[in-house]
Amino acid sequence: MSPLTLTIVGRYAVHQIQLNGELRQVQSATILALVEELSLDPRKVAVERNLEIVPKSLHATTTVAEGDRIELVQFVGGG
Amino acid sequence: MTDTATETWSVAGRTFTSRLIVGTGKYADYAQNAAAAEAAGAEMVTVAMRRVNLSDPTQPMLVDFVKPDQYTYLPNTAGCFTGEDAVRTLRLAREAGDWNLVKLEVLSDPNLLYPDMEETLRSLKLLVADGFDVMVYCTDDPVYCRKLEDAGAAAIMPLAAPIGSGLGLLNPVNIKLIVDQTKVPVVVDAGLGTASDATLAMELGCDAVLMNTAIAGAKDPIRMARAMKHAVLAGRDSYLAGRMPKRVYGDPSSPTTGLI
Q1: What is the pLDDT averaged over residues B192-203?
Q2: What is the C-alpha separation between B179 and A11, in angstroms, rounded?
Q3: Which pLDDT value is given to residue B99?
Q4: Mean predicted confidence (pLDDT) in A56-72
Q5: Predicted local distance difference test score (pLDDT) of residue A10
Q6: Residues A5, A55: contact at Cβ < 8 Å?
Q7: Which of B33, B104, B114, B193 has the smallest C-beta neighbourhood within 10 Å, fewest atoms?
Q8: In degrees to the nearest 10, what's the CA dihedral of B52, B58, B60, B63?
Q9: Is the CB of B75 inside 8 Å of chain A's CB atoms?
């Protein structure tokens, strides 16, 4: 599938994005919906979209579009 | 007399009683990690930023065990080799936690794990310009430590020995020189192996010590965490008390008069 292919499944648009370094088909149209689609707790992850931080206050209004590079990160143990 | 239990130290306007900062890596699980942090009496813990595991969103999360409302999180830049990587990582950490006190470590070589000081200094300037309060992991070179302080480091954190080596304080003379010249807190970070190493660092006048593997890699991490707590308190008290002068010849402790 070319990176720009947009498939309509029911009433949802399926986008292909690069999520944490892997190509992935997602349905969500916003960051908040994406985090919830992945069963993650929005309070516990930080989001970067195309190398820009997406503040939590903007998760609901920031769109997820075909070809976006999205990073979802969290705190883990470290020294 | 200063009471070590209530004596405090401050970094970038934040005040702490505990002078033992602990890492949160290499533990058997987050529950053991939390128990060790508690036994250490730590108030600040280092943490890393990594991608969420998308294949298993139910995996245990650090924040549910070592809770950010109980400990000051000190996000690190472990795994970063450039200033741009460090800024990107810590911006994500600031977004995740909404605080700006961070630990900068920019390494040069995956085997030595020695800091790349040229890149560390450049990274520090980028982070300071971006509003971060930066505690800087560095070599024990007093000249570079002064450059870091001049560039706005919130704390200078020279290594005792390579990360995870457990070799102890290899160059106490340099650490003492750094303590003497530095106005911001000095924290010995990395390379400590056992309790006496922590005491020695504190006896040199360091404001705190930071360790991970010395506790997590012990046979009994919880007991070692407790040992480190006592070692840091002992070293601090010993520093404040001011040790007796060393002398070459013996000096009797009992009276030399009134002998039978």
Answers
A1: 98
A2: 65
A3: 85
A4: 94
A5: 44
A6: no
A7: B114
A8: 60
A9: yes
Q: Looking at chain A, which residue has its C-alpha nearest residue B73?
A: A75
The pTM assigned to this predicted structure is 0.90
d(CA A28, CA A35): 9
pLDDT at A1: 47
- Chain A residues touching residue B57 (CB < 8 angstroms): 38-40
Cα separation, B199 vs B230, in Å, equals 9
Task: Please tell me the predicted confidence (pLDDT) of residue A3.
Answer: 52
**Is ipTM beyond 0.90?**
no
Residue B75 Cα, gap to closest chain A Cα (Å): 8
Q: Which of B47, B95, B164 sits opposite A77 (nearest CB)?
A: B47
CA separation for the pair B118, B125 (Å, rounded): 11
Is B176 among the catalytic positions?
A: no
